[in-house]
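Comment thread on ticket #2218

A.B. wrote:
> Attaching the input chain for the structure job we discussed in standup.
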Amino acid sequence: MLTMTVRMCVDRGAETQGGSSFLVAPESTLTLDYAGLQRECRQIESTLTAMGLKSGDKVAFLLDNGHWTVSLLLGTMYAGLVAVPLNVLAGPQSVRYILEHCDATVLFCSKKHRTEFGDAIDTCSRAFTVIETDEETGPRWARLTPRTHLDGSVEPSDDALLLYTSGTTGVPKGVRLSHRAVVTGGHNTAMAHALTPGDRALCVLPLYHINGEIVTVMGPLVSGGSVVMPHRFRASEFWSLVMREQCTWLSVVPTIINYLLDRAAREDVDGHIDFLRAPGLRQLRFARSASAPLPASVQQQFERVFGVPMIETMGLTETSAPILSNPLPPATRKPGSPGIPFGNEVQVADERGRPVADLVTGELLVRGDNVLTGYYKNDAANRSAFWPDGWFRTGDLGYRDAEGYLFITGRLKELIIKGGENIAPREVDDALYLHESVLEAAAFGAQDDVYGQEVHACVCLRHHCHVDEHELIDHCRRHLGTFKAPSRIHFLKALPKGPSGKIQRLKLIELVAAKS
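C.D. wrote:
> Ran it. Output below, let me know if you need it in another format.
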């Protein structure tokens, strides 16, 4: 069991890495080495405690990625306070709910988001201090008399992060992650990808999501590496940023992979490949995909077009990100599988929580130091989330093969039951992705008087591609057979996604109903 805290990681980095780079914010003039990170964390702790905040108090954030976002998040946890990053894409209603539910004492907010979420902030039933924060100059707070003696009494079991799930089936749930869980998530990332102090990550995923927070911040922090953090993902600047900042690895989601492939398809592909083979990109060891299933065909296309190994992984907010990963080359990687466990236990179980044999589909269960303490102020969710022996129920369905690789077939709540037969939406998705015109796809169950449920799917087509519904249905029949193939396909300009880029399958039913 790990006994580290975020505070210990920052202090150790300052002691052993000192002047080594930790953070590069490319749109800013600011850079941060490990010694500078420690100074900023201590200044943040000093000011927050001088404001009267005490251990366990909640500090919320409405900020885009950047230098001060990283410093404030780590500084909050360093001080023994609980960081609550808010999803800026969630909408005012969700932001207001979380601000009230999380019991925030302070909110760090950019000027842009203060305007955007003004009503949500001002109409909260709770009072809290709003601190406007500028990306270049930092928080605009009063220079209070700092405490000169900081006790640093932070325990591994103390809460460090409170992250809210996207709430596709109801109000968001607050996931309590301890210092032990947060640091373990960083260690599991470093272990899976053999990270060293010489590695530099590119972070284009938001820090209000577990992938950005744990994988590309805590991963480098525990391994002594560094991270390059632009404000947001831009496909037009992606590869030049990797080359200019000499990134050795990057973490993305399938949606970003599709954007990069679509852009490459609309440009001179041969020139694109030549660019990616330039000397400035030879240091790029791998890319990793997480937060949503990666179709095998998309993984193979990425590697063919860009010449970079794509490592599929799997993680959840409740498990401090990674639970599974494919090993790095030359070890075996299996397209369509998020890999094997790293740093935690994963088993497949039946409806009573009993382990099942290889190749038998069941629910994925997780156990380890990376697992959440519980849901905040939600006893019902806590009771249903764990088996009595401590295994966390992910809600994901899948199976394990003879070599220990896990394959995900869907979610318990998303399973399509047609005529009493179970159909995994993922299987239909994968068939649709094999068609060259499909950029994004998601199958779902639609109510049917004969079968109970019928298979429908929504697709988004690639730029300048044209295909009709009947052609795609015939394509699926060739790959899946008539029974599993969709009876209807709905064309959308974009599919609804959560903060991680994961397609929100259950929202498709509402969108399709609204169109009809």
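A.B. wrote:
> Thanks. Noting for the ticket: The chain has a mean pLDDT of 90.
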